[in-house]
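Q: What structure does this chain adopt?
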Amino acid sequence: MADSEHLSAPGCWTACTNFWRTPKGILLFAEIILCLVILICFSTSTSAYSSLSVVEMILAAVFFVIYMCDLHTKIQIINWPWSDFFRTLIAAILYLITSIVVLVERGNPSKIVAGVLGLIATCLFGFDAYVTFPLRQQRHTAAPTDPADGPV
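A:
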């Protein structure tokens, strides 16, 4: 009976929606929405560059679900901070390259909007990569200098 109460829908819903309010949840949600808007802009002009938006939107949604359901603590095989860092770093680089190419080609207005939004996505993914950099998150404490403070 205790297990069924622990896995009840309201408790699960609360645990899942609490992630939305964290800075990482907001960043992932913004990435998903921005990729969707860029995908729509590319779809109206040309479908040649839309695959980047589709892949990044799916990856951001997968990481959103993994963090939201707290699966990153249950699945220890994968190093999630490094995986998320490389996902965002690669996305930032690819969006930068794609946006520069699109803006240099100069197409119809929706293609230009997609290029500008791609530059914004570059900044968003770059900021996410900076925030999730695993070595930045490690906090080192100073070693005790007084022999009375340390282990004897």
